[in-house]
User: Which sequence fits this backbone?
């Protein structure tokens, strides 16, 4: 596999970054994941816009132009023969000198890394037919979840807790309300209305969320952006999640309680179809 490091395209075993890089020692960095379907980048513009927002929030320089990011994504997809899969993009603050809590000098060049992962048949994931089981757990992340940082230890622990309980993912809960999944936005459907937490610093502003809500409104579905409790979710007609890598994934149980009749519901199924069709059409 060819990977990108600071302008170079290298075999993965020759790519190197400094051990002093603040991404490595302080999780001082941001990232994006863009899906590839049929060789096209899905929602790439949205991911780029959010990358710039994350960089700004952390007072980090944006080292590349939009065209540079796009060209690098396309080159990696082509060189690595990715038809279905993803491109991972990470920008960390770098660091030329000693480890220090204070940022390095202004002229420090951030470290940019990109790599691809092949996922043949990504859009036909059989899990979309049966749906995910989720557990709930207290949301103990920091309070700026709107910045997409590489500080992912808590969601990783929550994912492991879910797996150890035979579930597929965890929904994180703060003050009794669901914030989001470990790496996705959370939704319920009640009486035909799609309900998902409003945007704030409590959650990541999902790029897939934005697209799916737009498609839902265009299809005359009702959308309410507000928080909901675990009990309300367990009594919903349907539940689902969205993310760049899972698209729209139905959720069929929460903490062992079946949602609706415990099978994939029509709203989640339809939104998945619309999202896949429209986003592939708009792919670059
Ligand atoms: N929420 C969290 C915490 C995430 O990590 C992610 C994606 O990685 C999402 C939501 C979904 O965002 P997107 O649709 O942009 O992938």
Assistant:
């Amino acid at each position: 596999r060819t990977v990108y490091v600071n302008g170079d395209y290298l075999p993965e075993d020759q790519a190197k970054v400094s051990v002093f890089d603040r991404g490595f020692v302080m999780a001082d960095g941001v990232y994006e994941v863009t899906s590839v379907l049929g060789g096209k980048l899905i929602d790439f513009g949205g991911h780029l816009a959010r990358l710039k927002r994350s960089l700004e929030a952390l007072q980090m320089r944006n080292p590349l132009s939009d065209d540079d990011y796009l060209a690098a994504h396309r080159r990696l997809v082509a060189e690595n023969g990715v038809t279905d899969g993803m491109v991972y993009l990470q920008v960390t603050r770098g660091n030329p000198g000693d480890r220090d809590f204070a940022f390095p000098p202004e002229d420090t060049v951030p470290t940019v890394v990109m790599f691809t992962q092949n996922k043949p048949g990504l859009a036909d994931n059989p899990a979309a037919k049966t749906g995910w089981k989720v557990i709930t757990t207290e949301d103990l992340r920091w309070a700026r979840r709107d910045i997409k940082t590489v500080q992912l230890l808590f969601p990783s622990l929550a994912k492991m807790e879910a797996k150890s309980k035979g579930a597929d993912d965890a929904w994180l809960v703060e003050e009794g309300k669901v914030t989001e999944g470990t790496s996705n936005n959370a939704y319920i459907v009640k009486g035909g209305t799609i309900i998902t937490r409003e945007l704030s610093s409590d959650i990541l502003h999902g790029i897939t969320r934005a697209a799916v809500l737009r498609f839902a409104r265009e299809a005359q579905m009702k959308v309410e952006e507000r928080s909901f409790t675990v009990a309300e979710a367990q009594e919903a007609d349907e539940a689902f999640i969205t993310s760049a890598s899972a698209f729209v994934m139905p959720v069929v149980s929460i903490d062992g309680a079946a949602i609706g009749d415990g099978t994939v519901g029509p709203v989640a199924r339809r939104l998945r179809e619309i999202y896949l069709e429209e986003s592939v059409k708009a792919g670059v």
About this structure: The chain has a mean pLDDT of 98. Residues 33, 180, 183-185, 204, 206-209, 242-244 surround pyridoxal-5'-phosphate (CB under 6 Å). The longest strand covers residues 29-37.
